[in-house]
Design a protein that fits this description.
By secondary structure, this protein is mainly alpha-helical. The protein folds into 2 domains: about 60 residues, 2-Layer Sandwich (Herpes Virus-1); about 100 residues, no CATH class. It contains 4 helices and 6 strands; from the N terminus they run ββααββββαα. A hairpin with a 6-residue loop joins β1 and β2. α2 runs parallel beside α4 and α3 packs antiparallel against α4. The longest helix is centred in the C-terminal third of the chain and has 28 residues.
């Protein structure tokens, strides 16, 4: 019998620019230095994260657990506060502006024709109905800025979330603004 061959093959050299990483952040896929003062480890799977990556994701990017190994209350590690639903506010402002505009339009309605009084009969108005220019102007001064605010909120949400309700809020407010502006101009 011969002697066993104890020679092991030499490790292959790493290519230039390639390095071996044992601790990689599952959020950004960059190395997490164990020697660094600040890193966060998941309580469930022990995956190491950069503090900013944990804070942005709000939980472990590997397993979804939201508890860290060290539960220190550091403000940089807290999840960001959710932004308000701008589309909901834009729709609300649009509906409020439309309701105020409808009320103002009804209140500024006036008859431009003369009326015919039939004794013991109904009052018959002759002519076409019209809108009071002063009433429509006051209504427009209140509701048009509101619809612009609603359109701005809808536009901001549509840019942040293209598939969301922001486009509906933007469309509703722009449509109302155009219609109210046309009614106000036509009342003069």
């Amino acid at each position: 019998m011969g002697e066993p061959n104890d020679q092991r093959p030499a490790p292959r050299p790493l290519h230039e620019g390639v390095h071996l990483a044992t601790n990689r952040c599952p959020f950004c896929h960059e190395d997490v230095a164990v020697e660094a003062d600040a890193w966060v480890s998941c309580r469930s799977c022990q995956a190491r994260h950069h503090p900013a990556c944990w804070g942005e994701g709000g939980a472990c990017s590997a397993c979804g657990c939201d508890r860290r190994l060290s539960e220190a209350d550091e403000p940089s590690l807290t999840a960001p506060t959710p932004r308000p639903d701008l589309a909901r506010w834009g729709l609300g402002v649009g509906v409020a502006a439309a309701a105020l505009g409808a009320l103002g339009t009804l209140l500024s309605y006036q008859s431009t024709g003369s009326s015919l009084h039939v004794p013991f009969g109904p009052r018959v108005e002759l002519g076409e109905p019209g809108l009071n220019a002063l009433g429509m102007s006051l209504t427009a001064m209140v509701t048009l800025p509101l619809s612009l605010v609603g359109a701005g909120l809808g536009f901001a949400d549509a840019r942040a979330n293209p598939a969301g309700r922001g486009r509906i809020a933007l469309g509703l407010n722009v449509l109302y603004f155009g219609g109210m502006l046309a009614l106000t101009i036509a009342s003069f």
